[in-house]
Amino acid sequence: MPNFTRRHxxxxxxxxxxxxxxxxxxxxxxAGRPTFRVKVDxxxxxxxxxxxxxxxxxxxxxxxFRILEDGIQQKLNTFAEGSKPPLQIxxxxxxxxxxxxxxxxxxxxxxxxxxxxxxxxxxxxxSNYMYRGFVYASDAIADFVRGMDRADSVAVxxxxxxxxxxxxxxxxxxDVLQGLRKAVAGDEAALYNGLLLTLRDAAKVPxxxxxxxxxxxxxxxxxxxxxxxxxxxxxxxxxxxxxxTSDVSRDPISSNVFRRLASRTGGKSFxxxxxxxxxxxxxxxxxxxxxxxxxxxxxxxxPNEGFRKIGVEVKNDVGKKYRVSARPGYxxxxxx
Length: 336
Description:
By secondary structure, this protein is of the alpha+beta class. The chain has 2 domains: 102 residues, no CATH class; 172 residues, von Willebrand factor, type A domain (Rossmann fold, 3-Layer(aba) Sandwich). It is 25% helix and 27% strand. The strands form 4 sheets. A 6-stranded antiparallel β-sheet has the order 8-7-6-15-3-17. β13, α6 and β14 form a beta-alpha-beta unit. α2 runs antiparallel to α3. The longest helix is centred in the last third of the chain and has 16 residues.
């Protein structure tokens, strides 16, 4: 069995936002010590804020948040709520709509359109585990696509033993639905292989992106481990939402893996055996996307070459009544 590591993945996948890579930050210049070069990319961080009753907290401003990385406060580059156009954060902490002139990557700018809406990759299980509920699952995905915000883009991938890109990332809902309807049931399930390839595609797209896995659960043909795939999503900042149609009591292993994939990447997991529950799960995901905040920042100098913990604090939450849901952190790419 091939040993497919994150190093192999990064050798073939583009970084977070290739055009916005800052110069390497060098630590360890003392004589006799190795020099570690930490490649500092523009970090894209999406999160939701809910109150004590689970209701989304909307209308917060950039100045309402404090973003920490290993306890070090970060300076925000951009800020956006839901599918609204992003704001550029100035040096004095004020904000303004991003100007078109700032969109030239060669001048250090960011294309405004890249941060309007969400790039959604739906990974649909078409293995033999899905024979019984295949049509209902396809209908649930179609309903989700039709109800997405107009600013969002969506791609539908299918997998059994191999991955099929049924429809490329697009805002044209008809094209996406046509690709979805061409999906056919396959044989064995290589879920984690397919998820890794989907993450590879998503990593090349600038802006905010999420992956939604719709699966019956068991994986019988993958060559990669779920924790390796999870680490890639974690490092790339791509939340994974999982909708599983399997019976939790009959497949506790897959269920636990799904929970870990979702929670460690800033997504959510749902266990929905019926078509109605699946529709409700998609609706919950749609609400998450529409009520989230997205910020970008270039990390402040930090000698930590391992896992960097990300913290999001709401400044005016004196009673700590708000709950922030975000990925716990990432690993920077290093070299010697």
